[in-house]
Amino acid sequence: MPLRKIRWEELVVDKRIVPQIESTEEVKKTQSFIGRERAVKALRFGLDMDKDGYNVFVVGLPGTGRKTFVKHFVTEYAQRKPVPSDVAYVMDFDDPQKANTLFLPAGKGVDFKKDMEKLVENLTEKISKVFEGEDYKARRREIDEEFESEQERITKDLIEKAQALGFLIKFTQTGVNYYPVMNGKVLKEEDFTALSEDEKRKIEENEKKVQLLIEAAVENVRKLESLYKERVRDLNRYALLFATEEFFSVIEAKYPFSDVREFIHKIKEDIIEKVSSTKKLSDLEYYFRRAYNVNLVVDNSDLNCAPVVFEDTPTYHNLFGKIEYIEREGMLYTDFNMIRPGSLHKANGGFLIVDARELLVHPFVWDRLKKILFSKQLEVENIDTAYGYSTIATLRTEPIPLKVKVILIGTPEIYELLYEYDPDFEKLFKVKVEMDWELDATVENISDLVAFITDYTRERELLPVRRGAIEKVIWYSARLSGDRTKLSMRLG
């Protein structure tokens, strides 16, 4: 038979192998992977490998259902994995320029945040009542009177000893002044000049003794003030712990986790320090709300398995998070409350799916992603700070241990370019999943294609597809392949 050009009308798949249904409403089998046994096996291998570098690169042509396949398979796979912890940033009371990390069981984070907000709401009122109580006032008055009495004794002793040496002591706002006295009168400069050498020498010797007495008295007062502050601090500590113990004990019992216990301990110490050094409690209300807040960046309360995150716009900040700023009195200000999470935060403990081309076109993203995957540590750092374009003082976040499987989806060209020109690529993405773009027109594959059509329409809440339309899609798939025995997957 001589060769001839085939007409498109001849590219018809045998209708007898098309499922006998009137529309996709009758289809029960969904989430099919359309004859992709090889891709399924490779992807499952990559997901099963719990070792460094076994991230996945899915290679396929656009329009072949790459993203749908990966999304469905990984979502189904994630059902067998546990829900990871909630993550929150809180203040580091030892270093306000640093944010600490709290980890709580999934679902506990939002409850802990609400409980801390309730505690702060009642904190100022509760503390005020303690300091206004008669018991506290009586004990504080006792400490004040003891301090004043001892200070008066030191002062009186200094005055008497200086007087015995012929000097008058006067206390001013700038310190202690002393003046030589003779015959009940302060010596003027001309009177001192008229004295004999023995009298002058005697006064000068006594002056040195008075100076030593003043130094000793000043040191004693300093020690007394230190002791006074310590006693007031101890009283405040006792009063504050008594006043707040009810709140904190409830929280510590409800959240018996080491991170929470350490955080609560730091808050107790901070309350004592701030209250002891502040004259008006009302000045602390704003501070309490900011410093004791819980910035919940990962809330997994709605999950029942490991997270699967598909990042459509993989910019630097979308992936890695950012630190926001506000202007305050002409200065830029930030704190741990203004840390925003990225997709890696949300995908931690699960899976992150990213389009390779979209990732590569955004500046610095590929470089930062590699560093994070190598270190297995996630810190929030703005792009300008990370690459030295800004000298503004900023926060440092405590690194979060990262356990995530990254799945890139791209074309064969992108895969080859990365493999050829980036030596880090093969160290981090050791699993290659190749997507077939053409399949045999078998009963099983056509059945899978119908399942794919069903998935596609149901996900987008479209009307059911009738049998005639299904046959048209199958015919169109065969036409794209140029072979009635084949099906093209480039239907997108």
UniProtKB/TrEMBL annotation:
Pfam name, any one: AAA_32
The keyword Transport appears for this protein: no
Annotated ranges, domain Lon-like helical: 86-119
Residues covered by the Lon protease AAA domain: 305-436
Keywords per UniProt: Hydrolase, Protease
Chain ranges of the LonB AAA+ ATPase LID domain: 464-491
Transmembrane segment boundaries: none
Coiled-coil ranges (or none): none
One Gene Ontology biological process: proteolysis
Recorded superkingdom: Bacteria
GO MF, one annotated term: peptidase activity
Thylakoid recorded as keyword: no
Protein's name according to its UniProt entry: ATP-dependent protease
Organism per entry: Fervidobacterium pennivorans
